[in-house]
Amino acid sequence: MAIQPQSDNPEDLCVLNDVRLFDLSTYRWLPATENPPIAPVPKARYAHLSSITSNRLFIIGGQDLNNVWLDDVHVYDLVSGAWVQRRDYPRHCGTYRSVAVTASRRVRLPREEGRHNTTLGTPGTRFNADKAAAPTPDVTQSDSLVHLPYSAEPTDDYPCDIFLFSNYNVRGNLTLYDMWAI
Amino acid sequence: MSGPFLPPGLRFPTGAILGTHFIIAGTYLSQTFQSFSIWALDLVSMTWSRVDPGSTLSSTSGSWFRSCLWPEANKFLVFGNKHGNLVEDYNRRLLSWDHVIYIDLEAFGIYQPPPLALDLPQQELGLAALEEGILADFEIICDDGRKIKCSRKLLEDRWPWFKEQRRIFIQAATRAIEATPTTIPESPLPEIRAASDKDEPRPDPRLTPRAFHLSEPYPITLAFLQYLYSMSLITPLQHAPAVLSQLLLLSSTYEMGHLQSLVKHAMHRALTFATSVGIYGVSTLCNCRSLQIRCV
Fold first, then answer.
1. Do A101 and B16 lie within an 8 Å CB cutoff?
2. Min CA distance, A169 vs chain B (Å)?
């Protein structure tokens, strides 16, 4: 939300729908880009949620100048500089009681992901040049190994999800909440 | 979602994800208590817990509204004004940026786990290399006299202190050799060298030691070597509480940051009533404040 650019009256507010980028290496605003005619440009809004993952900016919910809830999600591709997707999102989301978050690295849980190390061979024989030689005694078996969770860059199979959290129906101390991964 | 406590309505929430926790913070206003509240949801067990920094963020200590995560340090920053009035500023929607509070999330068990140095199959192969005695030209001697075979080259690559000791040893020994006159003509050294040795002078075989006394018991020495070969903590031996404690001390003594981050990670996960006393003791010795605080 901002003050109407053509007005002198600070009470004249307007809502916006543009994306502007500030270059942190040159400390300059980059020029605005034109949207092609068929691009799914979002309706102007305020108090929406946003999050960035996989080089895409997600704009979620918000309200327009008449305070009507906008129940949609728009996706802006930061690499190509264009709006690429629009989806319905049937819940009222706004910054008053909701938040959208993501992380830059994903935690992988090896215990849950299961093992697929069948190429390594039997423990005790992995470095044998002579295939017929006896295996080394007293080696650690693969299934007794302990793998702790670790951080990794997101992949297509294990991306960094956006989590959306809302407090609903705030009455005294009773609240309902929902979380979704986009 | 479950847990003994559930978060109350938080206004204008801000949040972040750190490790496998979802953190949410926002203004909590009730008849009796007003503060900037921080809650965390463990995404693995789906249980909520409150991050309670004492009275620092309650309305008696100023007005605080905006926060952000500093993931590299496992810290949560809160911005506001310690002389402000939380309720009045909320009603006027006034944000202040005069002061910053930081909350050490690792002390609450919320942190980003360390990344892998070697991927999982490479870790297993590394362990196999140790167990099958590959290229074992060196021995580490434990305090009970037992010996473990390993590769000198690998110890030098992955244990900086060891490499430095060897450099000092070679310098001293070379000086000693140069001081004594030679009577036997030296035979030329063979020309084959490892690719990684390009920048270093060829080690003189006469000055290459074959054994090293590490004054640690056999299980600790083995666990330490298992770490050096796999760059991870993967065997049940390494995860035994007494062994973890010793590995933390070794990582502190020899300044091995990666090993220390792995041991702290394992200790956070192994923290129970039974283990808390031991972990508290060793984390105090090694200056791991966040782990120490969590034990309390």
1. yes
2. 9
Q: 3-state class of A171 per DSSP?
A: strand
Tens digit of each residue's pLDDT (9 = 90 or more) over B49-96 = 889 887 777 777 888 999 999 998 999 999 999 898 888 999 998 999
CB contact under 8 A, A151 and B9: no
- Spatial separation of the C-alpha atoms in residues A103 and A159, rounded to whole Å: 10
Q: Model ipTM?
A: 0.81
Q: B20: which chain A residues are within 8 Å (Cβ-Cβ)?
A: 107, 109, 149
Q: Label the pairing between strands B211-213 and B138-141.
A: parallel
Q: Per the structure block, which two tokens stand in for B253?
A: 């003594």
Cα dihedral sign, A102-A108-A114-A115: positive
Top mean pLDDT of A143-147, A163-167, B107-111, B175-179 is at B107-111
Which residue in chain B is spatially nearest to A51 when comparing CA positions? B16
Pairing of strands A82-88, A106-108: unpaired
Give me the DSSP letters along A25-92: TTTEEPPP-PPPTTS-PPPPBBS-EEEEETTEEEEE--B-TT--B--EEEEEETTTTEEEEEEE--S-
CB B1 within 8 A of CB A177: yes
Report helix, strand or coil for A14.
strand
Q: If you measure CA to CA, which chain B residue comes closest to A96? A: B12
DSSP B58: B
B154 to chain A nearest CA, in Å? 16
Written as one letter, the residue type at A78 is L
In chain A, residues with a C-beta closer than 8 Å to the C-beta of B11 are 96-97
Whether residues A96 and B12 touch (CB distance < 8 A) is answered with: yes
Q: Are strands A82-88 and A72-77 parallel, antiparallel or unpaired?
A: antiparallel
